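Consider the tokenized backbone below.
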């Protein structure tokens, strides 16, 4: 599978946030001690690497399904994210937005990041020590995912996608609910939670929204909007759209293509059908084109 770095969106919002977070570039290689900022409406916390490494909950975890190191087992020094978030008051329906030093920015559901139950995926902030560097993100490069990388124990149990393994993380921001932030990506409210369109919406948020806006809302700046002026369900035959999502290069070869394939292990067939139904449904809920 393509390296995750290829999939990164340098979004203008990300850059704006990067400026707001006071990120220096290049991030990790300056003499300044790396730090990470946690922001909520009430409080800002800045945590330096040295302080994090002294915490009593620092642990060593072994990750065997790291998307940056397929097939390898990697040990990380890490702190559970739920413990870091404990000091902030996080409203139940808020979203947690992360920002990376290269501008990659997206949200991870609050409930996933705060989870402590070993029956589900648990997020850790992996911390790279200056004396113990990690494997590089891509063969032939010198860059590692450090100094801070979000990794997951038991990722499969909660269907954690690659977009939820951000590296070079510099900050987290607690934001309003998705509904307040992006009302126009929501399907018809009266549909039951189990309706295929609602399920497809979940598939969209997990897998597509980091790179694509829909109805012009969202932070993804890498791919085109998926509803305006036209929904892909209006100009692709259903088989073509599904083929594209399964593997964009198998529909149209494009060496510079940045969208990675979504095989069955990531989006099972039933979820792919739900996703297409959601996109179709949204084609009837368009906002005006810019
Ligand atoms: C890593 C970023 C990324 C993710 C994640 C992503 N895409 Fe894309 N997508 C792109 C980019 C960039 C393009 C433009 C072609 C290319 O570079 O591959 C694109 C193109 C497309 C197109 C073709 C649009 C056209 O008119 O040519 C469709 C449809 C699409 N994506 C749907 C999806 C869906 C559905 C998902 C979620 C399952 C998704 N994409 C996930 C980045 C992404």
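A designed sequence for it:
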């Amino acid at each position: 599978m393509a390296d995750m770095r290829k999939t990164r969106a340098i979004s203008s919002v990300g850059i704006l946030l990067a400026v707001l977070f006071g990120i220096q570039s290049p991030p990790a290689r300056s003499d300044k001690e790396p730090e990470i900022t946690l922001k909520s409406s009430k409080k800002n916390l800045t945590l330096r690497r040295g302080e994090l490494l002294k915490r009593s909950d620092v642990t060593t975890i072994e990750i065997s399904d790291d998307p940056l190191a397929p097939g390898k087992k990697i040990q990380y020094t890490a702190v559970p994210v739920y413990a870091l978030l404990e000091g902030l008051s996080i409203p139940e329906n808020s979203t947690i937005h992360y920002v990376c030093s290269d501008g990659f920015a997206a949200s991870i559901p609050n409930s996933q990041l705060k989870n402590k139950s070993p029956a589900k995926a648990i997020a850790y902030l992996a911390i790279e020590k200056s004396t113990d560097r990690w494997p590089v993100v891509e063969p032939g490069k010198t860059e590692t995912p450090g100094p801070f990388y979000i990794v997951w124990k038991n990722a499969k149990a909660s269907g954690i996608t690659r977009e939820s393994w951000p590296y070079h993380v510099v900050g987290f921001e607690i934001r309003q609910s998705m509904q307040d932030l992006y009302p126009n990506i929501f399907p018809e409210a009266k549909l039951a939670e189990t309706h295929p369109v609602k399920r497809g919406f979940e598939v969209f948020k997990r897998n597509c929204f980091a790179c694509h806006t829909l109805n012009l809302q969202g932070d993804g700046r890498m791919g085109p909007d998926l509803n305006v002026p036209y929904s892909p369900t209006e100009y692709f035959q259903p088989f073509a759209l599904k083929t594209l999502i399964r593997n964009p290069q198998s529909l149209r070869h494009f060496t510079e293509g940045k969208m990675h394939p979504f095989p069955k292990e990531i989006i099972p067939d039933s979820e792919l059908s739900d996703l297409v139904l959601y996109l179709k449904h949204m084609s009837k809920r368009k906002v005006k084109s810019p």
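Residues 233 and 280 are 6 Å apart (CA to CA).
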